[in-house]
Amino acid sequence: MSHELFMRHRETLERAIAAVRTREFFAVFPESPSRKVYGEEAPAAGQQAFEARLGRPFELDQPTTGAWVGAEESPWGIELGIRYPAPDVDRMIAAARAALPAWRDVGPEVRAGVCLEILTRLNARSFEMAYAVMHTTGQGFAMAFQAGGPHAQDRGVEAVAYALDLQRRVPARTVWARATGRDRVERFEKEYRIVPHGLGLVVGCSTFPTWNGYPSLFADLATGNPVLIKPHPRVVLPLALTVEVARAVLQEAGFDPALVQLVVDTPEAPLTRELAQRPEIRLIDFTGSTAFGDWLERHAPQARVFTEKAGVNCVILHSTDNYRGMLANLAFSLSLYSGQMCTTPQDIFIPAGGIATDQGPKSFDEIASDLAAAIDRLLADPARAGEILGCIQNPATLERIERVQQAAGADVVRPSSALEHPKFPKARIRTPLLVRATSGQLDLYGEELFGPIAFLIEADDVDDAIARVGQLLATRGALTLLAHSTDAGVMARIEQLALERGVALSENLTGGVYVNQSAAFSDYHATGVNPAANATLVDEDFVASRYHIVQRRRPVREAGGAGS
Amino acid sequence: MSHELFMRHRETLERAIAAVRTREFFAVFPESPSRKVYGEEAPAAGQQAFEARLGRPFELDQPTTGAWVGAEESPWGIELGIRYPAPDVDRMIAAARAALPAWRDVGPEVRAGVCLEILTRLNARSFEMAYAVMHTTGQGFAMAFQAGGPHAQDRGVEAVAYALDLQRRVPARTVWARATGRDRVERFEKEYRIVPHGLGLVVGCSTFPTWNGYPSLFADLATGNPVLIKPHPRVVLPLALTVEVARAVLQEAGFDPALVQLVVDTPEAPLTRELAQRPEIRLIDFTGSTAFGDWLERHAPQARVFTEKAGVNCVILHSTDNYRGMLANLAFSLSLYSGQMCTTPQDIFIPAGGIATDQGPKSFDEIASDLAAAIDRLLADPARAGEILGCIQNPATLERIERVQQAAGADVVRPSSALEHPKFPKARIRTPLLVRATSGQLDLYGEELFGPIAFLIEADDVDDAIARVGQLLATRGALTLLAHSTDAGVMARIEQLALERGVALSENLTGGVYVNQSAAFSDYHATGVNPAANATLVDEDFVASRYHIVQRRRPVREAGGAGS
Lengths: 564, 564
Prior knowledge:
The structure is a homodimer. By secondary structure, chain A is of the alpha/beta class.
């Protein structure tokens, strides 16, 4: 069975391995939530499967204390009431350790095949997953489907492709022959085995639990490491579904389902610190706050720690030949999922003298009001607006919007407002807040204010803007930088800045690709250079430190003659 | 010039890249100190070059306080008296940072070419290097030549090969095209750039400064990182020569020599801790004590830390079809460089009931006395003995031998004795000490006792031996394990142990390959699994975490039509 899974997914894996080398467009799983692709029954079946979960215990045959825990609440306002088995961490770790040897011994190809089968089964459940992601993260349905389903699954395939490709670089065996004299050859058989680094801990985030979690989960699994998944206590269901599918596939393929276990904790009794410091945990993947990411980097020295933390994503406006496109693109970027993407821009630097455009020069004030108007236009239809904005995942974000808006007073360019959704009356929907600032107000815009909050910052000129962005990148870090300029010299200076500070740069986006978006197999997500992250989804480093090579050698028994 | 260096070394690099994938025998630099290979004049010229260094300042045009420091002394007893410029660390770090951008921007191929040129020039100076290594580490001349010269240089080539191969996996650019509608295609140009992680610090060791240092130095350099080399204060000259050559080549190729700088400290005013905690230092490579390696792993969280620390290398004897060969091979392994290799066996486990051999059963006592006799035979000729044993590098090792020998009393199987060298009357030469122990005496044999000290430990039987070795591997770690058995079942259990504990296993060595030896391009040195090391010389992980990828993307300007 298990080798058959590799054969079944082999062609997909080879294509994925080729894709990350060319970085041309590639996708395994269709991103459209279309009946034509996923089947006529899929949307309704997915919704029913999701609804059948509500108000019930989520059964997982894992070591448990016997208690049931659950603290999820839907930002869309529906009742969830799902309870999960409270983990017995000691027995889980013991079970994971016991599961390791057989998983190690089957080798990279079988592991890759099993991982692809898990991802394929997850893909078949993308509608159910979409509802799970929507009602925990607050994303709109379409985004929840795409980012939570096929895009996350593709990121998982990408990690498996890297893992298989790198592990294959190590030959299983070789014959090593060295001439040691005129007629003598020392001849050795050598064997090389891939062994995993140890147990992995994947700490899930509250906004993109699958998209951010799958690269880690599948990089660990594909290189032989059992994984404990510790979801955010408010966003459990998407990873619980993932664990359920993974365990079922593992079991069918003849492996111990303890290779993937779900550790649910609660806000009152968090488990991450304790888990992260267990000596058995050798790999930790974390997406979340800078404070906790820094803590992990410093306090879990027994583990290799991969973090994606907070940053301050910036925009530099200098000039454009498509003013309308620029504004529409930016309006969408600021609105999408209410700015709750780790890639959403926050600080938009504009020269005091305005910018040159195809519609003539535009002053700072004109840009500010035109951007506000572009957002208004985008969000004019409430149903469509709700779909784009989604909900505010964390009530603390609502307070943050309120606080910044109050403090800004007359500097509010566009106030954030609540939006009624026809179908979800209790949904926490807020439109983006735009605030103007002077470049000296670093206390205002100089740290991440998570949520739909953006600043239009008046810089002296474009070089002042570049210098200030450089400072933010050095001190706070960022995942993305967006720049608009028709001047090759200016863009070259911005490119130099992005290179020096290690941030992914998007230039002159005016169409249907947004700075927030990062495409599997082509775009590297985070660089590991600036303070926003110490790792990249997915590069060689993300995978290579998860396994080791153990060799043995012995003389070839027949005495070697001369030659060969 | 710089691209020309890549063309000059391209074929060698491609062959090296292929070699690490097949792991068959491969070498770039000839290991024999032969006049036929290196030229009639080379030995004398190397000796003269070395002697011309003695008693003089070693000029390096680096930032310095103006003072001169030097604390080397030759274990062979000759006067060295070399002084080195005392480092001005702040200015050195500033110089390294200033040198980074141009080195980053030339890309992987030019960097690989420059690195190969440095290694080729080092190879041409292998005789000078041999004397430098011999008179600082105490190695015999032949070993100093091989391990300090061509073998170290080959390890450097290996690191460059990995670095080039991995960096090449990232394309410089791509065109990414995604269909976004029936007739619409979003088309993007994307560019990807390799950027270095930051400044590297390579902390040299006192026994194999070049062999252990070159993989780190060249992995850093080849991936774009400037390097500060901090040699052991008693073993400076080999790395000073290396820095001199590297700086000359860099300068000739049009690069800033500040890419490679030598930071010499003294035992009285060590600099490593301070350097390791500088925020600018992002990569640290260390070979040395477990205590300091563990300290670095915990106290330099701003850096990726690669350590090779102490371990307890073991031997399990069960049975052999070549008793004489087994003893001769083991005698050589224990004697070579007086057990001062990180790969030398220390704890030899023997079943209480003895072992089966081609010469009939041998009891524990017979094996002990036969091994002692094999060592005596090997070292019978004083000149040859001095060449094999070399000198005791650190006087503390002399004290350790004395202490263990005194404490062992009647359990001494073979006493260590001083040996007079005809040419070097002051040389610190000691023969191996063999001590018998019961398996309960863990306090005696359970930690690394660096130097020519080995224990013959009576285990209940082979499975007791396997269990005890497993315990040592788990708690202390090891770089090597040697086993002798003609029983496939026994060997399978030992192989399983080696796999579980992550140690390189050598089986049934009876010829001219020794457990101490690790061949570039074929043998992985250390696994990163057990406590003896957290990294491997050289695998993908050793290189991939030294650089990152920064991308930029922009829409292709001509509006995309349908198709393609």
